[in-house]
Amino acid sequence: MEFPSKLIENAVGELSKLPGVGKKTALRLALHLLKAETDTTASLAEALAKMRFEIRYCDTCHNISDTPECAICANQLRDQSTVCVVSDIRDVIAIENTAQYRGLYHVLGGVISPIEGIGPSDLTIDSLVERVTKAGSEIREVILAISPTMEGDTTAFFLSRKLRDLPELHVSSIARGIPMGGELEYADEITLGRSIVERQRQAR
């Protein structure tokens, strides 16, 4: 693809690195931003820079946050006795959109995958165990809401074994309304909501 300007070519090259954005779409976006008001393009650039360099992760659940404690953990109206364990931040957003769950979350930051060199120590599993076992913890149920892939099932099994001997703690998993091999973020809200409501107790 030939470009009339090296600056346009550079912009298209960067935009096309985004997921699902090809060269043609990147060119349309670049030309749109070129024709837009200067303030519009400047605001977009500033918002992206602030998101990348100023956003942080919740000290408790590892969800994205603007402050040391995210809005969900800070909300005392949420069920403090239930923690929903997910692999990715996108899963938190997906579950929240169902409006079926009012407990807390814990973001693992991935799943166990020996092929990719990701082991338990690379995830926030120790942080989860610390949350559950620390003095004064109100947590009585841990819901494993991990995508039912091979790696997801391996991670869920590891977690259930890790938590099974803790007294007065129930470990459950979301009902299999989510198809095998599916990803939570792509599930429709009704199916995902029903999976949370109809969660199943993990075998010890």
What does the model show?
- Keywords: DNA damage, DNA recombination, DNA repair, Metal-binding, Zinc, Zinc-finger.
- Pfam families: RecR_C, RecR_HhH, RecR_ZnF, Toprim_4.
- Residues 81-179 form the Toprim domain.
- Belongs to the RecR family.
- May play a role in DNA repair. It seems to be involved in an RecBC-independent recombinational process of DNA repair. It may act with RecF and RecO.
- This protein is of the alpha/beta class and 204 residues long.
- It is 41% helix and 13% strand.
- It is built from 8 helices and 7 strands; from the N terminus they run αααββαβαβαβαβαβ.
- The strands form 2 sheets. A 5-stranded mixed beta sheet has the order 4-3-5-6-7. The protein has a two-stranded antiparallel sheet with strand order 1-2.
- Helix 7 links the parallel strand 5 (141-144) and strand 6 (170-173).
- The longest helix is centred in the N-terminal third of the chain and has 17 residues, at 38-54.
- The radius of gyration is 21 Å and the shape is elongated.
- The chain starts with 5 loop residues before the first helix and ends with a strand.
